Amino acid sequence: TPPADNAGLYKGLQELSELVKSYQGLRENEQRGATIVNTIIATARTCNLDKDITDLPEEDFDTKEVEIEERDNIVGKVYRRLMEIESRALP
After folding, report:
1. Local confidence pLDDT in tens for the 91 residues of the chain
2. Angstrom distances, CA of residue 71 to CA of 2, 5, 32, 83
3. Sequence-ordered list of residues with C-beta below 8 angstroms from that of 4, at least 6 positions apart, any chain
4. How many beta carbons lie within 10 A of that of residue 66, not counting itself?
5. Which residues contact 14 (CB under 8 A, 6 or more apart)?
6. CB-side exposure of 45: number of CA atoms within 13 Å?
């Protein structure tokens, strides 16, 4: 049998959750904040969250070109979806 693991998010989703937390601390840093959001978008697509978040930007979308409010909006959508997934994963 496979080893028991903590209930929670799968590896890709866990990474995404950590990126969202990183963004919260660096969101006002114009360079780092945008870079993290670009990574969040790519990771969300890798985890197939683009199937659930219909207006998730494409991976080649550069969030350095949008205002902080738009980046917050993108991260907020990913965060809400992660919370929905995590709540269903709890025993």
Report:
1. 444 444 445 788 999 999 999 999 999 998 899 999 999 999 999 999 999 998 999 989 999 999 999 999 999 999 999 999 888 876 6
2. 39, 33, 12, 18
3. none
4. 15
5. 8
6. 13
Calculated CA dihedral for residues 68, 71, 77, 83, nearest 10 degrees: -80
Nearest to 13 by CA among 69, 78, 70: 78
- Sign of the CA dihedral with 49 first, then 56, 77, and 31 last: positive
Name residue, tokens 């965060």: 79
Place of tokens 């550069």: 62
Burial (0-12, 13-18, 19+ Cβ within 10 Å), 51: exposed
Global confidence as pTM: 0.85
What is the rounded distance in angstroms from the CA atom of residue 23 to the CA atom of residue 33? 6
Q: Do the Cβ atoms of 18 and 12 come closer than 8 Å?
A: no
